[in-house]
Write a structure and sequence with these properties.
Elements: H1 16-21, H2 24-54, H3 70-86, H4 90-119, H5 125-155, H6 164-175, H7 184-216, H8 219-222
Amino acid sequence: MNSLVLTPSPTHTTDPRVKAMQSLPINIASGAASGILGAAAGSPFFLIKTRLQSYSPFLPVGTQHLYKSAWDGLGQVYRAEGIRGLFRGVGPAMVRTGFGSSVQLPTYFFAKRRLVRHFDLKEGPALHLLSSAASGMVVCVVMHPPDTIMSRMYNQTGNLYTSAFDCLLKTIKAEGPLALYKGFFAHLARILPHTILTLSLAEQTNKLMRRFEDRILPDRVKEKI
């Protein structure tokens, strides 16, 4: 999450420094950048996770990869395909997480402002819950198509797909556009609680930090932060 003021102070709507931090382009760009970097760094582990979850000796579906453990999987992929194999599908993974991270906080603040303005909700758990639920829904809608492409590229054997764009075209051609949203509700069931807990806990953490600052920090320091 990018650096933002989650819980407004009395001067929240008029403080120019807060308005600058709440800039929509900055929120989107910083969220996308953090998501892309995180996805690139974690892509090999996500690759192995996907293959471990897909493997079944009883009801095999799709390409099967038999790994004894995550470390065994990383070793097998590296020996067979090198570094490039470990980063198979990193492109759609970066797009997936970049999309999700770029809309999470802007959507949260947008929903929060609308709920306050049109339904007169006060700052508190109910407002945080509804705002984060709206954010989680939008994140899932935006993130799911690249998530589908990423999973298919992770789970392929050989070079069925030459690139993320090739995978996208072949999927739509063979199964239609709605194939990009296969497993949407399972994804929503995962991402919605995650988003609600993340943003609600962030609000409470921010509130505790404000209390700590008010009690501990001298006035001259508080004026500078």
